[in-house]
Amino acid sequence: MTKITLVTGGSRGLGRNTALNVARSGGDVIITYHSRADAAEAVVAEITALGRKAVSLPLDAGDASSFTGFAVQLRAALQATFDRDSFDHLVNNAGHGDYAPIAETTEAQFDALVNVHFKGVFFLTQALLPLIADGGRIVNLSSGLTRVSAPGWAAYAAVKGAVEVLTVYMARELGARGIAVNTVAPGAIETDFVGGAVRDTPAFNAFFADMTALGRVGVPEDIGPMIASLLSESNRWVNAQRIEVSGGQGI
What we know:
The structure is a single chain. With 251 residues, this protein is an alpha/beta fold. It contains eight helices and seven strands, in the order βαβαβαβαβαβαααβ. It has helices spanning 13-24, 37-49, 67-82, 107-128, 154-174, 197-200, 202-210, 224-231, and strands at residues 4-7, 28-33, 54-58, 87-92, 132-141, 180-186, 242-245. It has a seven-stranded parallel sheet with strand order 3-2-1-4-5-6-7, sandwiched between helices. α5 links the parallel β5 and β6 (180-186).
């Protein structure tokens, strides 16, 4: 049976690349988007052109009160598009960045990061557990900044660190259902993250490139294939791990 992967934040950046690589590997895909329905539908069209099934659904990953309703929508989409009542893989990718020194970080910035990256991951996964097939896979996205520090990223890195701990507990509690849970921690990547800071600011790009053993920052195609591979049966015994994909950042 064809596996179905749900990628949150799949309309752009790492989420888009992950969704496309899952499709290239023979899987069907559900992606979520926050505001850009047009971008999400473009990804769906790309996946369909690869011969796979795909659907997009709206989701505010920072609004836990919406997750029950999202699960209802997801169940309907699974039945209508895939003739299934479950899906196999959850990739908790949706997120944003906020760059500010500790002395200047506002409570609103902090709360937004917690709501999307930690509370959102916790309670969305909780809401979707009845729909995840036994023997499935969950991948939570973290960051290379939980291992090496860079000024201005304290709040973002802290909530990603919380996700890494949560991953271990998810793996422990969901193991009885045969569900493996891992963290993937990318290094600096050229996307529109934080307004495209790494991609579009030469000094910022050079700063992280100088920290990286391979001498450059990453691109989405460095990450998506790795996540798709982690979801495959060839990595079925990988569980409760933090896997950094950074080109050797900060070693």
